[in-house]
Design brief:
The structure is a homodimer.
Chain A lengths: L4 H22 L6 H38 L5 H38 L1 H34 L5 H42 L11 H33 L1 H7 L5 H24 L9 H29 L5 H24 L4 H9 L4 H14 L1 H32 L2 H23 L4 H43 L3 E4 L2 E4 L10 H42 L12 H15 L1 H18 L1 H37 L9 H42 L7
Chain lengths: 686, 686
């Protein structure tokens, strides 16, 4: 039997678990009439966003497909794989969003019974997303494998599957990120600040959009982002099989293709088990709640490591490949831990921001910014450590396999992430429908936990994206022929041309490093534009709909969602085009060596900026929560006002600009990889 | 005659102009008794800072000198050149500070007569600094040249002169940067915010320290920073003479040494002329004032270009070297223009921040941060353009010569910078001594102008530092033997080992890129620590000195200066040690190739972060000034309060963290260059 069937079995088991969790969630009490109504409005808005996003996507997919079909070097299989990748990612996004927006009201109802009940419904709602992503991801690659693995062009075709996923991730993460913060800031500014009404007040036409945004950004966006990273990491490892074969680390190409696929399969099995062990008692205690989720991820990590060891042993591959994979797995877990240190208010950095807030908002900003910058070092050192170890044990292939290791437990880590917006929504619904205080207390606890897991999830996502981009850059280098495997070692084809100190490479690095700050500036501007559109619409409704402020009539929630969707999709255009066009220009004008430098420069600066923005934003958010918990004068104090400024400033950094960088890095690398056949014969115009 | 004597003549002419300007300033009216008193207090504080700083410096110099004498590869000449470089920089710093603190009171008195009079005194005070720096700089190198240029070790000895200057710059820029913002923030927080008394109120014991800080940071710090860049750029070009000779671009080593020296000499002459053409009429008009200063720099730039053309033509060198030099000169001027676009409130970016402030401080921060990130692109593209052109025309040597071109007019550009703190001080003295409103209006206009020139100066300083660091990295590559000149072209000694995609280089790049954010976080923390020390002391004086708040007794200004000095010098220790130790560790543990990657990674991220921090800070500052000029509700409005938050947050970014990065980049490159003899035989422990 071809062992690749094991991956098929894992994918099917994953779907089995998805079916089980779906039935579980749907069997829960839907809550009161009011809860059902609000939940339905959010679901409707979320689906409306998805519909419009997928419409825009469809246009772009058709255009790109035509281009792919026209370029003779690529062939029709590439176009098919591309469309297939996009459809898989869209399917996973739809499934996750559908479940998350059904689980929110039920979590609210379950929290009325007990905390454990609430946690379980929310987490299982998230688990549907996590396991759907990995199951679709692995089955998609397997299908392409069985279709074409005997074809000599196989390794040139499968990257297109990842590119399709990239495109969806671009829309999901960048468009979704702009939507979510535009809606959030718009709703707050026009409601809390301007009209002086509380957050989640049903008279504010933007509140549904705000809740929709949580799903759009943290479920669909995060899901599409990690779907892409997940499949890309597997694909990058497969395309680097030439390294393993050349260096004699693991037999033949088939074995080199099996290793990442079987490790991913083992990771799915481990994730399913991890999802089942998440539960907690009745005490509302952050430590215990966090412990409950951590039990799931730790269990899955240990199991995956054991599976990977057995797989590599059984396949007769070098045991070094196990260490390479383990290095990635451990680095991923530790990046999560370090993020939690820098952004959770149980530790010094975030407490320091809260303390500084007593001296005013200026100090809040300075302190938070320092924390963000400081938080870069463990992230970089962990990634560097993983690269050193993975490279030592498995060369380029090892680095790519490290990324697979880091992402192998994605099923459960993504469940932990997607849990967040479900809990957040449940909290919103609780307020909007006026539930008793003990229910709000429970959903608040679940929501707080969601903030921490969101920060850790972001750290994990950028770490994986960086490692994965490096793998893609190495694939690019081989595909474009500037690096070859000969005589058991890796050689630079033209010594000197890829030298760090040659002018094209150096210039490429500088230009690449320029991309992340400009991209961030553009996405943050996009949020501002979307915010303005929302504010104008809410004001209009207050002005034109009689009785709205008195609560006798209802605002047009859907209209705000629609306006926000249009604004976000329009605003994502400029940064996206830049990310797509820049590598093409660099490749064509400055040549393939400069493009390698460009990609490295972008990954390095992008990784650092993303960690900085995510963690500064997360720390500001939690410093505010720490003060709201009664420290430094509590809610309403001057320190609280200062902390709110930090939180507001940090929001688009951590929820739009930072996460969008993941997409930019991967997208640019993928485009370079696709350009490779064109650039091979080419060293630039200059 | 050896043409090098022309440089001696230029240096002497520079001193002649310094003497003339000094006499001019000292001949001016010292102002009223009260003005003289405040000015004396500032001078005393500034000199006290310098004394203590130089004491600490002396200890470090002795230690390093002993180390240099002990390492057998280096020899005693290196130690002598090192001490000589440090002494030259200290001398220039002392002279500049002495003059700036004598010009401040006289500017205040001159502004009582007319604006032009005020501008002239302040600018000529600054010109003493500018011309002293370049004159001492060039004469120092010339002396070493005449002493040892026949010695085969000459090219290994002169970098030590630059290293001595580096060390002084480290103390001046980092220590001074921490002092200036610590004093500023401390004085504001304890005075304006806590006690509710106006800025520059004489009852606040920290006001003198605040005014001392302007001199310490923007005169001594900026001067030492640019003294270093100036001499380093000349030295880097000279050490790369091997490239010119190897490639046959410009005859022999002697010619290759003469070119940067004579261009620098021409630049000094041009700067002297430029300093004399600065004057303005009576209208208080920002455009005209800026035009007056710009006339000086533009005149000098054009003259320098003409001189350079003649020099290169006369020396029979390739005319390409003229284009290389011109590329740097033009890039420097344009970086200044772009900085002014992003940070001056006459243009859209800063106006946008002021507008966003109407929606609260969160929006101010987001908008300013976006502006900072966006401002990176012209800076990077200009530097990239200069590198491409300079490299095309003169290879590595051309790149270094581009830096010389950029810095050739330093005499007048630094005069423009050093003018700022003189005007700022004059404004402070005007308030502290209760001058009539029309005087304050004039000094305010001069001060505003100083803010703009400070921002442009910073852009210029980081651009020059980045270009210069690249030159030093290339010198390092040649010194350590990973790049050689053979057969008329540049070759990588070990093809593949310096490949961008080899693990050590890639890891080096990542680690290097990590340095700037961590360094910035540390320096910003240092500011916070110093601020706290000052606040505690001012509170103590209010508590313990009777009659202080009633104005019947005086605070102990000197004590605050002293405490601030000690705190700043202690706080600069950790970041400085990190910047010194990190390249040593990378070189020894990961080897010479990784170290090259490390330096490139640091320069790229450091350049981008510095531009971002400087420009965001400058834009926030001027957005506040724009609102204070009556826009968006003017002073006291909610928009103004939000803008103040931006200004406060931006201060340590633009005056401490950003400028300190210049030093870090150069210092790490210089240390690598000094380590080169040790690392040659060595590829790392791992």
């Amino acid at each position: 039997m071809n062992l690749m069937w094991l991956s098929v079995i894992a994918g099917i088991l994953g779907f089995g678990a998805v079916a089980y969790f779906t039935r579980y969630v749907l069997a829960q009490d839907e809550g009161s009439e009011a809860v059902r109504e609000v939940s339905a409005a959010i679901r409707e808005g979320a689906m409306a966003f998805l519909r419009r996003e997928y419409q825009s996507l469809a246009v772009v997919i058709v255009i790109i497909t035509i281009i792919l079909l026209v370029v003779p070097e690529l062939g029709w299989r590439v176009a098919v794989a591309f469309v297939f990748g996009a459809l898989c990612s869209m399917g996973a996004g739809f499934a996750g969003m559908n479940m998350a927006t059904r689980a929110n009201g039920r979590t609210c109802a379950a929290a009325a019974h007990s905390l454990d009940q609430g946690l379980r419904v929310a987490f299982r709602g998230g688990a549907v997303m996590g396991l759907t992503v990995v199951s679709i991801g692995i089955l998609g690659v397997v299908i392409l494998y069985f279709l074409w693995h005997d074809d000599p062009a196989f390794l040139a075709v499968i990257p297109a599957y990842g590119t399709g996923a990239s495109l969806v991730a671009l829309f999901g993460r960048v468009g979704g990120g702009i939507f979510t913060k535009g809606a959030d800031a718009g709703s707050d500014l026009v409601g809390k600040v301007e009209a002086g009404i509380p957050e989640d007040d049903p008279r504010n036409a933007a509140v549904v959009a705000d809740n929709v945004g949580d799903n759009v950004g943290d479920v669909a966006g995060m899901g599409a982002d990690l779907f892409e990273t997940y499949v890309q990491s597997i694909i990058a490892t497969m395309t680097l099989s030439v390294v393993v074969v050349g260096l004699g680390i693991a037999g033949d190409h088939e074995t080199a293709w099996l290793i990442p696929m079987l490790i991913a399969a083992g990771g799915i099995l481990a994730s399913i088990i991890g999802c089942f062990v998440v539960r907690v008692g009745e005490t509302v205690d952050m430590g215990k709640l966090l412990g409950a989720l951590r039990r799931g991820t730790v269990t899955a990590s240990i199991l995956t490591a054991i599976f990977a060891f057995l797989i590599i042993h059984f396949l007769d591959a070098s045991i070094g490949l196990f260490w390479a994979m383990l290095a990635g797995l451990i680095a991923g877990v530790l990046i999560g831990e370090s993020t939690s240190y820098f952004t959770s208010y149980e530790f010094k950095p975030t407490k320091g921001i809260a303390e500084a807030s007593a001296s005013g908002a200026g100090a809040t900003i300075i302190q938070g910014f320092s924390v963000g910058m400081m938080s870069v070092w463990p992230a970089v050192l962990l990634i560097v450590g993983a690269i050193i170890a993975a490279f030592y044990f498995g060369s380029f292939y090892g680095v790519a396999l490290g990324a697979v290791g880091m992402l192998s437990t994605l099923g459960v880590t993504l469940a932990t992430d997607a849990y967040g917006p479900v809990a957040d929504n449940a909290g919103g619904i609780t307020t909007m429908t006026g539930q008793p205080p003990e229910v709000r207390e429970r959903t608040d606890a679940l929501d707080s936990l969601g903030n921490t897991t969101a920060a850790t999830g972001k750290g994990f996502a950028i770490g994986a994206a960086a490692l994965n981009s490096l793998g893609l850059i190495l694939s690019y280098a081989i595909a474009v022929g500037i690096v070859t495997i000969a005589g058991g070692s890796i050689q630079t084809t033209d010594p000197g041309a890829l030298s760090l100190l040659s002018a094209p490479v150096l210039i490429g690095v500088l230009l690449g490093a320029l991309m992340p700050p400009v991209f961030c500036a553009m996405t943050m501007q996009s949020v501002a534009i979307t915010t303005e559109a929302i504010i104008a619409e809410v004001r209009r409704q207050w002005r034109e709909i009689p009785g709205l402020m008195q609560g006798t009539s209802k605002p047009q929630y859907g209209l705000v969602v629609d306006i926000c969707t249009k604004a976000a999709l329009r605003a994502m255009l400029a940064p996206s085009i830049m990310a797509i066009v820049a590598p093409v220009i660099v490749g064509v004008v400055l040549g393939k060596y400069a493009l390698a430098g460009f990609l490295v420069g972008a990954v390095v600066t992008g990784f650092i900026m993303a960690v900085m923005l995510n963690n500064a934003g997360g720390a500001w958010d939690n410093a505010k929560k720490f003060i709201e918990a009664g420290m430094h004068g509590g809610k309403g104090s001057d320190a609280h006002k200062a902390a709110v400024v930090g939180d507001t400033a940090g929001d688009p950094m951590k929820d739009t600009a930072g996460p969008s960088l993941n997409i930019m890095l991967k997208l640019m690398s993928v485009i370079a990889l696709m350009l490779a056949p064109v650039l091979t014969q080419f060293t630039g115009i200059i």
